[in-house]
Structure formats: structure tokens, C-alpha cells
Amino acid sequence: MKAINISQRRRCQINCQLSMIHRDHGRISKIYRKAFSEAWSPILLIFIMVSIPLNIAIILLLRSGVLNTFEYIPVSIGIVVHTVIIMVLIVPMCFEVETLHQTKKDISGIVPNIKQIRLKLKYDDWYGRLLHGPKFGPVISTYGSLTYRMALELLGMYIAFWLFALTRLNI
Predict the structure, then answer these.
(1) What pTM does this model have?
(2) pLDDT, tens digit, for every residue of 10-49?
(3) SS3 category, 116
(4) In angstroms, how far apart are the furthest CA atoms of the chain?
């Protein structure tokens, strides 16, 4: 009888710890979203508001033909620095999203061993959300969460834009 009480008490402790893990993950996700909306979002907005006219000015400067060969080098370096700054701002947010989804590797082994139905359904839903649902973390309105794949696609589009613009110049 004493062994049954100990195993029930141990199971209750495990269930409480699992509930706490689920609750903490939800809190951390909310903290990341709030930090993005209060800190990173204004920085990115200001950077985009500055970078769009900067890109247009650089294209117009290159297109005008007033630059000689040696003046193209600083402009090219400016383009590369601008691209690096964009990636430096985006990659830490991608890392946050990746970190929030690391638990999906551990949950797959935990769910079959949970005996309490309510907790099992909660973890199963959480696992499904981590695998197939929208990502946790910073969100760019219609594009979704910032992931490494999205950062790579943005970098590819940015480089393709510049290659397209530079091939159309009258040099």
C-alpha cells in the first residue's frame, strides 16, 4: 500500500512538473513576442524606413553614370554592409524561434508516457503546434515567424534585386 502511495505521489509530482514546463514555454513565447513588439519591431521599422530610400538613392546614383570606376567600390561596399546589417538584425530573431521549437524533440518521447488524459491532450496539442502549426516567436505580419528559411529567402530576394538592378545599369 505504501508503494502505491509513493508511486501516485511521484506521478503527481511528474504531472505538476510537466504542467509547469508547458506553462513556462507559453510564458517564454509571450515574453519573446512582447520583446519583439516593444524593442525589435521599432528598430526594424526605422531601419526599413531608412534603407528603402537609401537603396533607391544608390540605384539612382549608379544609374546616373556620374561615378568613375574607383567610386563604384565604396558604393558596392555600402551595399554589402547594408546587407550584413539586415542579416545581423534578423538572424538573432531566427535563433529565438529555433530555440522555442527545440522542445519538439523531447515531447515526442514524453507524450506516450503521460497517464493523465488532460495533460496528455495538452502536450499532444502542443507537439502538433510545434510540428505543423504556426511558429512561435517574432512575426512579420503576412509572412509569418522569422525562421532561418525566411531569412535565407529574404537574403536571396535582396541579392536577386541588386543583381537585377546592377545588370540594368548603363556602365
Answers:
(1) 0.60
(2) 777 777 777 787 788 778 777 877 777 777 777 777 777 7
(3) coil
(4) 92
Cβ contact 89:161 at 8 Å: no
Contacts with 100 (C-beta within 8 Å, 6 or more apart), sequence order: 25, 28, 29, 32, 135, 136, 137
In which domain, by residue range, is 62 found?
Answer: 2-167
Question: What are phi and psi for residue 136, nearest 5 degrees?
Answer: -80, 155
Alpha carbon distance 103, 126 (integer Å): 10
User: Which residues 6+ apart lie within 8 Å of 139 measured at CB?
Assistant: 33, 36, 145, 146
In Å, what is the CA distance from 140 to each residue of 38, 54, 61, 171? 14, 22, 31, 37
Quick: pLDDT tens for 90-119: 788 788 777 777 777 777 777 777 777 888
**pLDDT attached to residue 67:** 76
Contact 156, 149 (CB under 8 A): no
Q: Helices (DSSP H) in the chain: which residue ranges?
A: 2-35, 41-64, 69-100, 104-110, 117-132, 148-167
